[in-house]
Amino acid sequence: MKHILLFALLASFMACTRSASIYIVRHGERANDSDTTSLSAAGHERAFALAKRLEGLHLDTIFVTPYLRTQQTAAKVASLNALPFTQYPAAPTSVLINRLANLDDRRVLVVGHSNTILEIARGLGTKPSMTKIEHSDYDNLLFIRIRHTLFGKRVHLYEETYGKPTP
């Protein structure tokens, strides 16, 4: 009887645990410094490296801003997952943060900008080790896991880099 009760308690605990996995990256290298620019050859290589890094994760949603470079960065990932893009405004980041904070059992990719990705990560309750993304820095991947349990919300940040395009 004890084993049945213990199993029932464990099963109910597992049923109450929800989690979201959020991958946040900056778009790949730009062709030039204009706001409407596309990716450079190195940026397309970076986008391919991102797709390789996220391959097999079975994403549910891909968030991109209205800028072409974020969409190009996410294109290969979208193709591999047979997903359309979900656009979000580049500013204010609170719109996206509120949406991400309420995800349940979802895996999403967010492609943003140097001045937004750390703000998004902080808005979700993490403390990235970087204080700023430099203009020439394109290789950061922030992975955030948000777990909702009977004991409250737990947020974990994992930071890594990906891709090394050829010069």
Automatic annotation (TrEMBL):
Domain of life assignment: Bacteria
Record bears the keyword Signal: yes
Keyword tags: Signal
PROSITE patterns (UniProt xref): PROKAR_LIPOPROTEIN
Keyword Cytoplasm recorded: no
UniProt-listed InterPro entries: His_Pase_superF_clade-1, His_PPase_superfam
Signal peptide: 1-20
One Pfam family in the UniProt entry: His_Phos_1
Name listed for the protein in its UniProt record: Phosphoglycerate mutase
